[in-house]
């Protein structure tokens, strides 16, 4: 059963399917070229292996990430895991999760474009209107005509809102944004516990009409005050009403490609068998299982490479150690030379005083 927010069982839960082409998460979030598979990033956003830093905690930064392709699901659910952290008691500006007909690559609304067509869920850190009602979470819809009222924290434009302090929490904050049967619901896990399912109701908007097709995006901005805005994961699920046919998987590997890989794999296997046979012919005394060990598996190779890498590091550290010891030795020698010099000088100074005291006598003598 699907529970509504009053806790009563209303109807069967929708079918939920993970859509990896519109999602990202660690531990291999960014590729070696710095990009995120199926996503683009703009501005000051920095993708890394386990998160995307949408903005670093520097003044006046803007960044965002957007799905490369348009999403087309009648019902969906997005789970965003993030951290907003800064040293100050107050931070700025905030983070936004978008579903819009165009990618809002840059602009004044938490780092994304104004006049958006679709919906934004804003995590507004900074209290621009001074009403002591931030940090707050708000849902703002737009058909492309609205200009976001940043100075008043969008207070007259929000379709739903809740007060939540999402900054500097011990665990990542999670937002679950569900669009199902024209109702948009925002649930929040406030990051007080490691329990991932510890969601609380924040806000919902009934009869909300948003474009069927659009891009998902996450943006953030800093101002005079600045927080790190880090997104650890964005997971999208398509929802299908019970009893209805789920949309066909759109991301299957094409048949020709599959066949090609299959063929390549078979060639590889044959090659390997041939090599084994040859080896056996050349080494008739080696029998049975050990032969398998002579061929390194991919895993073994990886472990060996890691081991070799660590060995190299170890050797280099040893060498550095030796060099440091040499430098220390040399310094010790310098110090002893200097100490000798100083003590010599000290004796000289001592004798100098003797000179000084004898000097008048000398001049005295000289005047004679
Ligand atoms: Ca604000
Ligand atoms: Ca405010």
Question: How does this model look, in words?
Answer:
Strand 1 and strand 2 form a beta hairpin. The longest helix is centred in the C-terminal third of the chain and has 70 residues, at 298-367. Strands 3, 4, 6, 7, 10, 15, 16, 17 and 19 form a 9-stranded antiparallel sheet that branches. It is flat, with a radius of gyration of 34 Å. It starts with a strand and ends with a helix. The protein has 3 domains: 2-240, Jelly Rolls, CATH 2.60.120.200; 255-294; 300-368. It has 3 helices and 19 strands. With 368 residues, the protein is α+β, with helices and mostly antiparallel strands. The model is unreliable at 350-368 (pLDDT under 50). 28% of the residues lie in helices and 30% in strands. Bound molecules: calcium ion (CA) (2 copies).
Short description:
One of its GO terms (cellular component) is COPII-coated ER to Golgi transport vesicle. One of its GO terms (molecular function) is D-mannose binding. By secondary structure, the chain is of the alpha+beta class.
Outline the fold blueprint.
Elements lengths: L1 E2 L5 E3 L3 E4 L5 E2 L13 E5 L2 E2 L4 E4 L6 E6 L3 E2 L2 E11 L8 E7 L16 E8 L11 E8 L16 E4 L9 E8 L2 E7 L10 E6 L7 E9 L6 E13 L14 H28 L7 H5 L3 H70 L1
Antiparallel strand pairs: 1-2, 3-19, 4-19, 5-8, 6-7, 7-19, 8-18, 9-18, 10-15, 10-19, 11-12, 11-18, 12-13, 13-14, 15-16, 16-17
State the low-pLDDT regions, or none.
Answer: 350-368
**Principal-axes shape call:** flat
Radius of gyration: 34 Å
Q: Please, what is the average pLDDT?
A: 86
Helical residues, percent: 25-40%
Number of domains: 3
DSSP E strands, number: 19
> What's the story with the biggest beta sheet?
9 strands, antiparallel
SS field, number of helical segments: 3
């Amino acid at each position: 059963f699907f529970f509504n927010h009053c806790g009563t069982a209303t109807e069967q839960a929708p079918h939920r399917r993970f859509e990896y082409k519109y999602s990202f998460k660690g531990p291999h979030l960014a590729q070696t070229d710095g990009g995120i598979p199926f996503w683009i990033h703009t501005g000051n956003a920095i993708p890394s292996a386990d998160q995307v830093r949408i903005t670093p905690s520097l003044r006046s930064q803007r960044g965002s990430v957007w799905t490369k392709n348009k999403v087309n699901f009648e019902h969906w659910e997005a789970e965003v895991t993030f951290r907003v952290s800064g040293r100050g008691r107050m931070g700025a500006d905030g983070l936004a999760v978008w579903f819009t007909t165009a990618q809002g690559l840059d602009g004044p609304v938490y780092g994304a474009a104004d006049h958006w067509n679709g919906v934004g869920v804003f995590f507004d850190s900074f209290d621009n209107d001074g009403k002591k009602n931030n940090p707050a979470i708000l849902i703002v819809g737009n058909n492309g005509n609205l200009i976001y009222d940043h100075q008043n924290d969008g207070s007259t434009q929000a379709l739903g809102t809740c007060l939540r302090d999402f900054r500097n929490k011990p665990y990542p904050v999670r937002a679950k944004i569900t669009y199902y049967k024209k109702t948009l619901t925002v649930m929040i896990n406030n990051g007080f516990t490691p329990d991932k399912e510890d969601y609380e109701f924040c806000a919902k908007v009934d009869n909300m009409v948003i474009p069927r097709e659009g891009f998902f995006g996450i943006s953030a901005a800093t101002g005079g005050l600045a927080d790190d805005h880090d997104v650890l994961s964005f997971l999208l699920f398509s929802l299908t009403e019970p009893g209805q046919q789920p949309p066909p998987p759109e991301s299957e590997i094409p048949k020709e490609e599959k066949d090609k890989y299959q063929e390549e794999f078979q060639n590889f296997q044959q090659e390997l068998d041939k090599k084994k046979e040859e080896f056996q012919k050349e080494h008739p005394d080696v029998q049975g299982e050990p032969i398998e060990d002579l061929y390194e598996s991919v895993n073994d190779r990886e472990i060996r490479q890691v081991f070799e890498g660590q060995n190299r590091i170890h050797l280099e550290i040893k060498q550095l150690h030796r060099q440091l010891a040499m430098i220390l030795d040399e310094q010790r020698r310098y110090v002893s030379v200097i100490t000798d010099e100083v003590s010599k000088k000290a004796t000289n100074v001592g004798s100098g005083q003797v000179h000084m005291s004898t000097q008048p006598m000398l001049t005295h003598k000289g005047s004679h």
